[in-house]
Amino acid sequence: SDDWLGGWTLLYWGWWLSWSPFVGMFIARISRGRTIREFVFGVLFVPAGFTLLWMTFFGNTAIDLIKNQGATALAAVVKEDVSLALFQFLEYFPFSTVLSFFAMLMVIVFFVTSADSGAMVVDTLASGGDTHTPVWQRIFWAGLMGVVAITLLLAGGLSALQTVTIASALPFAVVLLFSIYGLIKALRIDVHKRDSQQLATIAPTASRNPIPWQRRLRNIGYFPKRSLVKRFIDEVVSEAMDMVSQELEKQSTPSHIDRSRDDRITFEVDLGDDMNFIYETRLRYYNQPSFALSGMTDEEKDEEHRYYRAEIHLKEGGQDYDIMGWNKEQIIHDILDQYEKHIHFLHLLGKK
């Protein structure tokens, strides 16, 4: 009927709109490293494709059972309580008990995974973006979601849950419009940042204090341990940042260095109303390539398979290069290079 088509169409729209902020943020978090094209393709076509297959196989089969096979009991259950329709539908197939068990298992898995992702995102938002929150806090949000769902089901059944889903989708539709605007704005900033990286002409320096090529070759094939890279960051990188910070203070440009976290050190220049400049050195670990482990026993490989790098991260993300083994002058010049590119980026942003 028209009422059924209209009601379920609104529910379907409302379901996608109400869940999109939580599921979108959850998938974005676990999709780190993917391109925007890959992310959009996945979140649009994978769920839509699954829904198409579900409607085609199960929906068409149910319609055929009712219209051509005389399954009047199925039609009655759908009309009376749609939440039981799937299990009544499975009664028309062999091994219906086994199929019903797996259907119930899938429903439980779906709810648990959905509640887990939703609780994680709500917990992150409620904590101001902090992803390292206590376990009890996430359990609290997951439990609260379960209590709300159970209360709605007990109060008005599936129709009450559908009504709340549709009602909650309306304000989120407005929020999503602002999210779209923010995404477009962020993408434009990324374009300007890329242009600044390509067009910025860095002033030539008289000397970069190059290291001897023999030492450079030795550094290429060297895979340092955590303690060595950590000491390099605490001593060499930290001192280089201090020198740049002191010089900026002489020029009345405020800056500060954050050493609060064990695996990184962050240098930030305060540019007032403009986007601050951030130069961060992070301690990252990787597994050694196989050629570096040749001649070792399995036990030695387990102990030696991990090595560490001092990687540079800017405000827009990781730059994927390692400064381990650089001297202070080289690090200072790298900070200045990135700072000059950032100033050029702000210039392009102001022009456009």
TrEMBL record:
It is found in: Cell membrane. Coiled coil: none annotated. The keyword Membrane applies. GO terms for molecular function: transmembrane transporter activity. It is a multi-pass membrane protein. GO terms for cellular component: plasma membrane. The chain crosses the membrane at residues 6-27, 39-58, 92-112, 139-158, 164-184. It comes from the Bacteria. InterPro entries: BCCT_CS, BCCT_transptr. It holds the Pfam family BCCT. Keywords: Cell membrane, Membrane, Transmembrane, Transmembrane helix, Transport. Its main location: membrane. Belongs to the BCCT transporter (TC 2.A.15) family. PANTHER family: HIGH-AFFINITY CHOLINE TRANSPORT PROTEIN (PTHR30047:SF7), HIGH-AFFINITY CHOLINE TRANSPORT PROTEIN-RELATED (PTHR30047). This is Choline transporter. It comes from Salmonella enterica subsp. enterica serovar Chester.
